[in-house]
Amino acid sequence: MQIYVSQSVVRSGDGTRNHPFRFIQEAADIARPGDVVIVAPGIYREFVHPKNSGTKDQPIVYCTTEPQGAVITGAEEIKEWEPFRGDVWKVSVPNNIFGNYNPFTTKVEGDWYFTDRENHTGEVYLNGKSMYEENSLEAVENPEVRRSSWDPEFSVYTWFSAQEMNDTVIFANFHGKDPNEENVEISVRRNCFMPLTDGINYITVSGFAMRQAATQWAPPTAYQDGLIGPHWAKGWIIEDCEIYESKCSGISLGKYLQSGNDNKWTKTYIKDGTQTERDAVCQAVNEGWDKEHIGSHIVRRCEIHDCGQTGIVGHLGGAFSTIEDNHIYRINTKHNIEGAEIGGIKMHAAIDTIFRRNHIHHCTRGIWLDWQAQGTRVTQNFFHDNTPPEGCEIKSGLSLGEDLFVEVSHGPTLIDHNLMLSDISCRLSTQGIALVHNLINGSFTFVGEGCDNGGLKFQSCRYTPYHVPHSTKIAGFMTILHGDARFYNNIFVQKEIRQDLRDYVHQAGFESLTLYNFICGTKPYDGYPTKEQYFASLKPMSGDFAKPGSNDKYYDHLPVYTGGNAFFNGAQPCDSEHSPYIEKNHTVKIIVSEEDGHFRLHTNLYEYLPRSMTRMVSTKVMGQAFEPEQFFENPDGTEIIFDTDYFGRKRSIHPLCGPFEEGAADRFTVAYPTMGGRAIYYHDKHRLEGRARKRISQKDLEDMEPEQRPFGEFENGPEGEASWEAMEKEDEVARIQADITMTGCENVTFPYNGTLFQVQDIFVRGNTAWLRDLKTQRLVEVDCEYGIYSEKKKWSVSSLQSVDAGSDANMSGLVQTVGTLLCVLSKSMAHDPADACKTISERVNKALEPRITMRLTPKYLKFIQEKKFISLEDVIYRVKTSPIEPVTETVENL
Q1: Where are the domains positioned within the chain?
Q2: How far apart are CA 360 and CA 310, in angstroms?
Q3: Which residues have a Cβ under 8 Å from the Cβ of 62 and sit 6 or more positions away?
Q4: CA separation for the pair 289, 320 (Å, rounded)
Q5: Which of 40, 157, 281, 747 has its CA 20 to 30 A from that of 827?
Q6: Contact 199/53 with Cβ under 8 angstroms?
Q7: How far apart are CA 730 and CA 794, in angstroms?
Q8: Which secondary-structure segment (H or E) carries 137?
């Protein structure tokens, strides 16, 4: 069933297309498995709490008719401001507007929350941007720049609240702006989209903008709050959403409210926080935390920004999930709230969770994996600028962030094909890790440190759980011995060390190789044993096993495994590094630029990068993490082989170290604008384009009564409801991401469907090629593996790299080959398999030899009958003779 919602109607209807509900919650009250709640553009000032579960095969879907056109906000607009003194204005808000949760009397608090000033969960927003709370009216009247803020200029826009009778009185300094003319809002609701009870499963939320929620601090030992989240459930999908301005956390995949263990540490002070955390994990297992009932969520293609604590938070509830293709930035950059739960993503117990292709930048830290990062994989992520900007006051060690923090976990934690370009790349108070094919521009900190609770008089080791592989069942507890680390095929490039960072760690007393250092490379692992050294020390027990120190070998650092790593600009290997490549004669530059939302990496690295110094890395090479005795493998237990690179391109037998296999370019487009300006939603197994379809003139629309207006911006003609499938077919646009664009193909022509096809460009990815006709601009897709072709009427192609096919015989031959295949497939030429083989062999192979010989025989050209043909993959990735330049524009035919 389709349930419609539109904020534009004067009164709610029955949820049909012609009489939609006015509030999303009305739809959420009745939605059942398989239902689709379709929301028109508008601002929805409500808290949506789904009441019913979907099923795995029939989720309940909430989607929008226009990408981010439907906005769910936890704020209300305020227009009754009165001048107070100077630039300060005043407003009184009746407390009944807040219901049973007043954000301006609710303090931010909880375990591991550290601050030097009082904060409330409420916010005042000026033109969509949260201002800074002060603890007195005097401070609002005389604001001082907060040097710890990453946006110090805006930090003087301040507010203070007080209670008078039954009103919340807010004083705010707008610095000359009139709040009654500007868009000024205050947070009213705690959440935007979240069930009130546990176990509301299989919900999909697509394409919304959600903002301005008065969320509470979300430590792992409490119910974890979020602007949106599943509460404690299974199988949610949150996709193509913009989520921002949550006081604490944007998305929560976190823990339920545990009886007797909710912020127990700060409420009772009886047990240390680590002990209450251990209790929380065991209690969850006893109360039904398992893969069957909890986790397995997907968060994808979301833009998450400007949240106070985390972009995504989770403990236990985020296990078995996938978090991919998200753009996360400006998290905890106001530095008005601080503590040990800060990051673009902060996850505890991310068991078998994959963090893939996320772009995380300008956050206090990128990803923080705390406890039980077992079976966790961090792959193809783009990290940069996740340390404080130069000149920013660093208030504590936790304010000096990094791209990735892995803490007190036993692994296996796999970190591969990432760009880690901040001043500090990793904080590694952990073991059981593997770093493979990363580009690392910063340092490793807290190696061998940070795993106790700071005791001086008594030992305070943190014993953390590890699990039965691919399960929540607890296999044991153990402290962290450090080591058990693998570093294969990485590139380390030392960057210039900032003096302000040096000064901070010196003054704070953190300056050492094992605490804060700014040496890029594996150097902090000096002194750790190799595999041979470590296991040689483990001998059978003798008669003196009870003597003091006889068991020290079981508490020594675990071994470190290395190979295939390259070091530039003075980056330093550890003393046991196996056959490192150390470049001493040239300087490598790494620069990140941003142009119209496209982020590019500029480097001369590949001029000096050696080849044939590496081996292919796989699960077999990485082996098992020591404590859980689990392989570095996929969540389903299958082997991982690193035979493709950051872009998914095939690697050679001796792959290049670092994330990129192709090294001919000096620039790489490494991240694209989130959601690409549009979103795709699913409805009855059909793909719907979230595009406006205006069929009624604006004048006619204005003359209609609200209840007569069409739902959203979709057609409502005299024939009744338009077919969703028809709308999809009418407006379908083929969005193509190619690896290579081959230009200069104009001399290649061939007959096609009764006309002459003159090739302008050819785009290639894997075994698929797209040919563009110079005259008609039509685009034809050819699947060269299965012998299938189709024509695209409306299309858009983005490509990573470009090559002039006319300047290289190999590329020219490839273009001719694909053109000939299309001739045969479309039966525009009377070629049988043998004739096609002869034609291609005579006209193409001579141009390709001796580098490449197309293996064309009648056996391989039986695609007409068997839908099979040869693979072009080897051709694409072995041809490297032409200069390759990045494509800077998307080619479109709309």
Answers
A1: 1-73+192-214+692-732, 75-187, 734-893
A2: 12
A3: 24, 27, 28, 37, 39, 48, 193, 203, 204, 205, 206, 208
A4: 12
A5: 747
A6: yes
A7: 10
A8: helix 137-141
- Size of the chain, expressed as the number of residues it contains: 894
pLDDT in tens, 539-556: 776 666 567 766 788 888
Between 809-825 and 833-840, two packed helices, what is the crossing angle to 10 degrees?
160
- pLDDT at position 719: 30
Per the CB < 8 A criterion, the answer to whether 785 and 765 are in contact is no
| Rounded Cα distance, 800 and 877, in Å | 14
The string of pLDDT tens digits covering residues 339-391 is 999 999 999 999 999 999 999 999 999 999 999 999 999 999 999 999 999 98
Cα distance from N-terminal residue to C-terminal residue, the chain: 32
Q: What is the pLDDT of residue 446?
A: 95
Q: Which of 344, 345, 378 is nearest to 363 (CA)?
A: 344
Distance in angstroms (rounded) separating the CA atoms of residues 428 and 435: 11
CATH fold of 75-187 reads Immunoglobulin-like (2.60.40)
C-alpha to C-alpha distance for 441 and 490, rounded to whole angstroms: 11
Question: What confidence tens digit (pLDDT) does each residue in 805-855 have?
Answer: 777 666 766 777 777 777 766 766 554 555 555 655 555 445 444 433 444
Query: CB count, 10 Å around CB of 610?
Result: 12
pLDDT of residue 395: 84
- pLDDT tens digits for range 429-439: 999 999 999 99
State both tokens at 641.
Answer: 């082989």
Q: What is the largest CA-CA distance in the chain?
A: 98
Instruction: Give exposure, 574-594, as e/b (b: 16+ Cβ within 10 Å).
Output: bebbeebbebeeeebebebee
Residue whose C-alpha is closest to residue 621's, from 634, 629, 636, 632:
632
Alpha-carbon torsion angle 756, 760, 765, 767, nearest 10: 30
- Mean pLDDT for all residues in the chain: 84
Q: What is the pLDDT of residues 602-615, one digit of tens each?
A: 888 888 888 778 89
Paired strand residues for 262: none
What secondary structure, in 3-state letters, does 381-430 show?
A: CEEECCCCCCCCCCCCHHHCCCCEEEECCCCCEEEECCEECCCEEEEEEC
Residue burial 327-350, b: 16+ Cβ < 10 Å; e: rest? bbbbbbbbbbbbbbbbbbbbbbbb
- Tell me which of 708 and 539 has the higher pLDDT: 539
Question: With contact defined as beta carbons under 8 Å apart, do 403 and 378 qualify?
Answer: no
Average of per-residue pLDDT across 714-733? 36
Burial of 496 (0-12, 13-18, 19+ CB in 10 A): exposed
Residue 87: partners with Cβ closer than 8 Å, 6 or more residues away: 173, 174, 175, 176
d(CA 125, CA 108): 18
- Cβ neighbors of 458 (< 8 A, separation 6 or more) are none
Nearest to 113 by CA among 254, 259, 216, 190: 216
Inform me whether the pLDDT recorded for 759 exceeds 70. Answer: yes
Question: In the numeric block, which tokens belong to residue 783?
Answer: 């699947």
